[in-house]
Design a protein that fits this description.
Strand order of the largest sheet: 1-2
Order of helices and strands: HHEEHHEEHEEHHHHEEEEHHHH
Largest sheet: 2 strands, antiparallel
Radius of gyration: 28 Å
Number of strands: 10
Oligomer: single chain
Number of helices: 13
Length: 302
């Protein structure tokens, strides 16, 4: 950096020369590292926004075209064309830095509390679809992406080959919030419920009975409700208490074909088109006839 260079320059060391250049610097080091990505030594964007918008951010170098002889001297009657350099564009994100900061703090707490391998958090404006925060912990330092992300990785690298370390780099840089798929869990109960209400197969005040178990699927293990025996409850109460059993009954009433239609209608199985490379589409059943009774049951609650 400039301060270090000036200290060396002030010593007037013989044989030491200086060449000025520019490189990308990330003031917040590892904040939103997977979202932003980084540039390599040639200034080419790697991963994240840097890679996706590399051509727009890079700009164009200036050029001079002229007719010259073998000694590179311009021919008097030759033509000269000058193309000025143009700056690259700036990327203005939807990320709210304060929300991003809170999300990263929370991800770090979860990592420590549960000794997790990784934590991903996405905060979205549900009305516009704008991403307000995206975290994939552990973060890496955008200014030094090849460094280990934590102490345990640093110790592990001491015993690894360069190729093994390089494989870890790619894993460190991968944005698992976009590049991986995962089961939605109980949040999917909202999709099952919305589909059934839309098809008039149920309503918020419809009553169901939760015995704590689903035992009537032949050849399948017993499905347990997360809250055990909830007894009589409305659909609204079932959602409030995250009742698995009720969702199984709702999905049965809805049927396989309508269930798949709404899964696709809500966008599952298709990429969102987010401006980041490597987004996975997700896995959903393509043919309703191939959904077994146990699959329909477990899919209903996520």
């Amino acid at each position: 950096d400039l301060d270090t260079a000036n200290k060396i320059r002030s010593k007037k060391l013989p044989g030491v020369e200086f060449e000025e250049g520019y490189q990308r610097f990330y003031p917040n080091n590892d904040m939103a590292s997977h979202l932003l990505g980084f540039v390599n030594s040639d200034g080419v964007g790697q991963y994240g926004i840097e890679a996706f918008y590399n051509d727009d951010l890079t700009g164009k170098s200036g050029r001079i075209y002229k007719t010259a002889d073998g000694g590179r001297r311009q021919v008097p009657t030759g033509e000269t064309r000058v193309y000025d350099a143009s700056d690259g564009l700036s990327a203005v994100l939807t990320i709210d830095q304060e929300i991003q900061s809170y999300a990263e703090e929370e991800a770090s707490k979860i990592m420590e509390e549960f000794n997790a391998d990784g934590v991903q958090i996405i905060v979205e404006d549900v009305k516009s679809g704008e991403i307000l925060a995206m975290v994939s912990n552990p973060n890496y330092n955008n200014n030094d992406p090849a460094s280990p992300v934590n102490g345990s990785q640093k110790r592990a690298w001491e015993k690894m080959s360069p190729q093994e370390i390089q494989n870890d780099w790619f894993d460190n840089w991968s944005n698992k919030a976009v590049n991986y798929i995962y089961e939605p869990g109980s949040t999917f109960k909202l999709i099952t419920t919305a589909a059934a209400i839309e098809e008039n197969e149920t309503n918020p005040n419809e009553h169901y009975y939760c015995s704590g178990y689903i035992r009537d699927i032949k050849g399948a293990p017993v499905i347990k409700c997360v809250n055990h025996n909830l007894g009589d409850l409305t659909l609204t109460e079932a959602l409030e208490r995250s009742c698995n059993s009720t969702m199984v009954y709702v999905a049965r009433d809805l049927g396989r074909e309508k269930f798949v239609k709404y899964i696709e209608g809500f966008g599952f199985g298709a990429p969102t088109g987010i401006d980041l490379k490597g987004e996975l589409s997700g896995l959903i059943p393509k043919n309703p006839e191939n959904i077994s009774e146990i699959s329909l049951a477990t899919m209903s609650y996520g």
